[in-house]
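Closing statement on the copper (II) ion sub-project.
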Amino acid sequence: MKERSGFSSGGGKRVWLAHIAAWLLCMMPSPTMGQESSARLTLAGTGMVSLNLNRSIDQDSEAEASNQSIVSDFSDSFLLLRLDRQLYTNHRAGMLLGFVFPDAETDLGEVFYNQINVFYDTRAFRGTLGRTRLENFALEFPTLREEDLLEYAFVLNGFSNADNSEFSRYGNVARAELFGSGGRFHARGQASNWTVTDVAGERLNDFEVNSTSGFLGYRLPQGIRYSGVIREAGIGFHSQKVDLPGGNWLTGFSAGLAINLSRNPLRNVELRGQVIHSRGIDAGAPVDAVATTLGTPLGRALSRSTALVASLRLLRRPYQLDRLQVATTVGYKTFSGVDASRFTVVPNVFFQLGQGVDLGVQYQYESLSGSLVELLGLRRSHSIKFVLVFSFQSMFNDYFGDRDDILNLEHGYIS
Amino acid sequence: MRLPIKSACVDESRGETTYGRREFLQAGAFGVAGAVVAGGPLNTPDGSAEVLAREAEAKASATHGGGRAWPDRPEGWWRHQDAVLPPSEAPAQELREVELDIQIIKHEIVPGYSFHVLAFNGQVPGPELRFREGEWVKVYFTNRTELMHTIHWHGVDLQYENDGVPYTTQHPVMPNATFEYTFQAIPAGTRLYHCHFGTPLHMQHAMHGALIIEPERDPIKEEFGYTRDYTLVLESFATNDARDDLNFMLERMKQRMWLMKEGALDEETLAVFESKETFLAAIDRGWDPPYLPNRNQKRERAAQNYNFFAINGKAYPLTAPIMIRRGETIRVRLINGGGLTHHMHLHGHQFWQVAEDGNVLSSPLQINTISVGPGKTADIIIEGYNPGYWTFHDHDTSRVTNNGMYPGGMLTMLVYEEMDDYDGYHPKIALDE
Ligand SMILES: [Cu+2]
């Protein structure tokens, strides 16, 4: 009795230390404690190698000086690992770990880790912390690679002068999303760190939160994607605290709408359009030369601009299997206050040879006008890409449903 | 022929004074033939060749061979002397009408674990249907899901277009449609009904229910004089596979319904052909049937991963106990609504199997473990001679689990009502041993 209660006595202290030791031993992870609950594992990836035939025509149209190249290009191939599990609360938590193969010209090295994050999921909420997509757009478009439309379809990174797409697509985020109607409606707010580089495009060790964004969206869940006319819609803002002499905040707005022109699940026809308006840094103020020069990635990101993208996509799905996709995407971007604009059209055709295996060809034409021609040393470019894409997604130990499963959506959510 | 075993087993006075194995052994020892038919370890401890041979002979006997026999059966109920009558013969004024629907519901099999199932009238299993033998029945079956279904009346001898086999005896019942099944309830016995569309998914998860056709005179009742009648529908669920499959089927079917409305659903998309010729013609055109590895591998799944097992929709410890009194005789109808064979073992008792597939056995069989395969039914008689708490469970004990945890699943208990007053050990609720 005395020993048990007496922490102050010498003997009591020994008992107390023994208790701590025992407690520490209990806290050690032990394989014999409790039941093992395995994580659900989803493995996804895409191997995408194209043979690119490029022809660019520089500003001297009289001379028709042109460059031609043939390159093999495996950029945007990726591998992604998702692990998640059910918690004691019946909520879920998990992590994503993934990398992409960046374009060889980007100095990003062989691989770029685009997904290193943890997330927490409930029926109506998802929190994400770590590196992931910045979600700095309203819609995705049917081009071979996202970077094909980088200048048109994304709010660009106002901190980076690096010539890559990764710094405008991925960043470190603290994100909260709220879902309604089983994922049909969602509201997203995030604080993020967009990659910061120096003027030379070298990445700086600056991981401070430097941006914020908000988004309201509607989306037909994947399982019922043809069931309505409005397939996706959304509107958002993306503010980067650039703290430049011309202004503290670089704010872009995005809005998009995707509609099923045909709800036929065997011949889906879909039209989508997006506008991104970037307010830019006040051009009247004295700003760093790089920042205002449209010839640099940073300059274009900081400039006041409006970009429109629209695509029309036909999907042939005999026997309810994707077999043929024919799409055309058009992009137009104009910079305010200067005579500068650019235009692109990207038609492509993909045959699905087997599930997850696409053989395709994409043509892209881009034409610059105004001061962009001189600044970028380019008037027009053509490229043809012949591509074989292999993609897969496999799930192992699948022991719970997802928010927008049809069962959870329409027959009562199971937590 | 008939031996007075019943009186030895269920005699009230005997039950009052003594009960237990000694008396039971004596009861089982009435006559050599009785011991042979009983055939259990108690009576044939050596399993000698002679005994086994006699047992085989007794089993092979199509007549009332080998010992325990039935009272005179009502004439003609177990054999159809006449052709099965078509629904047009149903007497309109004496038609028994039943409404069944099918819905997708969340079903809680044990506290804390729910999953989506296809449920007749929102119940798991579907409501027990009881008809009098010979009664004409009309079932209005309404499909309140976005999938296709039918109802098959398993073990009923009916006109084929009421048999509920999609694309064989009828078109499947489409979403929001009502189909009328009309049949005469014959023959008597413990039977079942289940969906026959996408059977591996639909029937097991959980479109099945008891269909009990009661005879005018029941030889089992006459022989054993049972007082209570229990129905145990045995169920096996692969909840993760079912979720995956149901989501997939719902997505696909929603698209097919759109195509159907537009008149654009063809044979190849539906993978249902008017004839073998049109099927082979599609193959010639280069159509890949959905079973080919390039189209289907059940998403890396070779077999169903069964993880929950139930009796009447509930897994242990939520299974309902079978209540009995000392000296009482009860009837238990076992119906397998799932896709596995269950080996139901009762502790502390030798019970009588009296019917299989609803049909009365030529001789009752005294056993303590009974295998009930998919689509099978078995009727057993339990005599209350050994008060206590007695587990009754699948002896493939991998099914006495909830999500892999023992004990759980297909486990219930035979409970003597007298045990409330007994000052001894009483069962606890164990969830993890
Ligand atoms: Cu069904």
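Chain B touches chain A at residues 104-106, 114-116, 240, 243-244, 246-247, 250-252, 254-256, 258-259, 262, 264, 268-269, 271, 287-288, 290, 294-295, 299-300, 405, 432 (CB under 8 Å). With this model delivered, the sub-project is considered complete and its resources will be redirected to Aim 3.
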